[in-house]
């Protein structure tokens, strides 16, 4: 079997476990599989080596008696020969204590004749023991003698169903997570108004008092102070002891033009281009249809490029959305042996500008629809890179991709269905020389997760693609690895890149 086949096999076993289909999961294992867990869990009868499917089933039964919840979330798959290494997080909740945590794990698999013959689970056993084992929670001795009775009002507040729940050891719950989530659009609007007013640019050369901000931006004094305080609470402004407001490191870098990394175009586009389609989320969930021009069968990109104002907003959004990944690509990838780079779906050329600025030996080509040329070439001139980055117009549906030592597909695959994703990777393979690389970055996520932060943003991006395109959808890091193998790439690696971004690299051997 190929590395691609081995990754697909192991990925399928994880999917079966996640569905709760134990028989389907075990069907991928050899009858004499060797099952290895750290000895540090032996006293809980969960350590050492088990051999054969009956022993593995017995091990799993013991695990289920100790844990009310076990959910493996694989992130990265590496394949070499008959081996697959998987990194990820195992979410575990102990049955006896109710304590839960995400445990970082590394799984090492060996495959033979299409079956897993050996599995080894590597993890911090102390973290799991902390879930299982009781903690001495004996309260300190209370003072003897007369004690003041609690005020009657306090007794009333703490009584009833809430007090009974606490007495049973249940977690106290509040309504605020629901309320705050329902009003997140307030936070978005505060940020958008600050961008529209030019507040961050006005503060780029130093803090201002409230009166000075009112005067310089032509504002009415009513509402400005809570507006500035809200931005402070969001981490976009910092309030000094004297009452003046200034930029924070994040707003100074990413909401002004001072360092060439302004991402304000992305929230601006969210407000101007995508608000209406997101109002149709309920309808999309009922019908499965996108909620823009594509709903009527039109090509959303043709409609976009027919409107110059929308094109400008879109390119500003693409530049802002690519900033984190572009900086990470320039910083984290080895570019010494690379002379040429092609950015597919280049829009205004933000990624090439970052790469060529950081690595002066590089030359680049941006590939996109012909209508993009003026925007790309203007950006190249403004960056002083017109001699090193050129534009090539075309459609990646009908035309070959430009050749280069390294081809970048950033925020491209998520726009299309799985078949188109595979076709684009096959075209990249064809365009690369031997030893060349394709670099895919996207907001990948695992649909089995339900966590917040970066992972939540990945789920929201998945919904966004479904609202904006007829076939677009998010995908997992494991999917990217499988598609790269299918396209012919010999060495494949997948890892986190920046925030919710993931990086998948395939080498043509």
From TrEMBL:
InterPro entries: COMT-like, COMT_C, COMT_dimerisation, NTF2-like_dom_sf, SAM-dependent_MTases_sf, SnoaL-like, WH-like_DNA-bd_sf, WH_DNA-bd_sf. Residues 12-118 form the SnoaL-like domain. Residues 134-149 have a biased composition (Acidic residues). Residues 132-170 are annotated as: Disordered. It comes from the Bacteria. Residues 183-257 form the O-methyltransferase dimerisation domain. SUPFAM superfamilies: NTF2-like, S-adenosyl-L-methionine-dependent methyltransferases, Winged helix' DNA-binding domain. This is Methyltransferase. It comes from Actinomadura gamaensis.
């Amino acid at each position: 079997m190929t590395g691609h086949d081995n990754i697909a096999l192991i990925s399928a076993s994880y999917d079966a476990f996640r569905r709760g289909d134990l028989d389907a999961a075990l069907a991928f294992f050899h009858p004499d599989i060797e099952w290895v867990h750290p000895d540090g869990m032996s006293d809980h009868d969960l350590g050492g080596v088990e051999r054969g499917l009956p022993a593995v089933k017995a091990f799993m039964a013991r695990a289920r008696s100790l844990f009310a919840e076990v959910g493996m979330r694989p992130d990265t798959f590496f394949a070499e020969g008959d081996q697959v290494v998987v990194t990820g997080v195992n979410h575990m909740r102990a049955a006896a204590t109710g304590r839960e945590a995400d445990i970082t794990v590394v799984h090492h698999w060996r495959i033979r004749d299409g079956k897993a013959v050996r599995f080894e689970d590597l993890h911090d056993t102390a973290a799991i023991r902390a879930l299982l084992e009781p903690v001495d929670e004996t309260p300190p001795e209370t003072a003897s003698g007369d004690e003041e009775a609690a005020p009657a009002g306090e007794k009333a507040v703490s009584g009833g169903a809430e007090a009974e729940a606490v007495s049973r050891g249940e977690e106290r719950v509040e309504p605020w997570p629901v309320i705050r989530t329902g009003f997140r659009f307030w936070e978005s609007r505060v940020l958008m108004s600050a961008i529209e007013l030019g507040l961050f640019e006005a503060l780029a050369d130093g803090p201002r008092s409230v009166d000075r901000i009112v005067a310089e931006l032509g504002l009415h004094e009513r509402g400005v102070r809570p507006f500035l305080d809200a931005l402070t609470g969001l981490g976009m402004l910092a309030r000094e002891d004297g009452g003046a407001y200034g930029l924070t490191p994040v707003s100074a870098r990413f909401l002004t033009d001072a360092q060439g990394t302004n991402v304000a175009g992305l929230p601006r586009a969210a407000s101007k281009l995508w608000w209406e389609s997101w109002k149709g989320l309920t309808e999309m969930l009922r019908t499965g249809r996108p909620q823009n021009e594509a709903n009527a069968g039109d090509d959303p990109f043709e409609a976009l490029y027919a409107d110059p104002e929308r094109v400008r907003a879109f390119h500003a959004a693409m530049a802002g959305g690519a900033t984190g990944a572009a900086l990470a690509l320039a910083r984290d990838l080895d570019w010494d042996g690379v002379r040429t780079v092609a950015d597919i779906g280049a829009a205004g050329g933000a990624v090439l500008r970052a790469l060529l600025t950081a690595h002066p030996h590089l030359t680049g080509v941006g590939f996109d629809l012909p209508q993009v040329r003026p925007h790309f070439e203007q950006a190249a001139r403004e960056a002083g890179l017109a001699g090193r980055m050129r534009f090539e117009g075309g459609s990646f549906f009908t035309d070959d991709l430009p050749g280069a030592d390294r081809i970048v597909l950033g925020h491209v695959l998520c726009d299309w269905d799985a078949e188109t994703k595979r076709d684009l990777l096959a075209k990249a393979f064809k365009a690369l020389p031997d030893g060349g690389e394709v670099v895919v970055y996207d907001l990948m996520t695992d649909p089995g997760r339900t966590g917040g932060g970066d992972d939540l943003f990945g789920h929201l991006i998945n919904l966004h693609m479904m609202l904006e395109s007829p076939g677009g959808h998010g995908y997992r890091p494991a999917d990217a690895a499988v598609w790269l193998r299918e396209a012919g790439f010999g060495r494949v690696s997948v890892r986190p890149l920046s925030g919710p971004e993931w990086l998948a690299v395939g080498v043509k051997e």
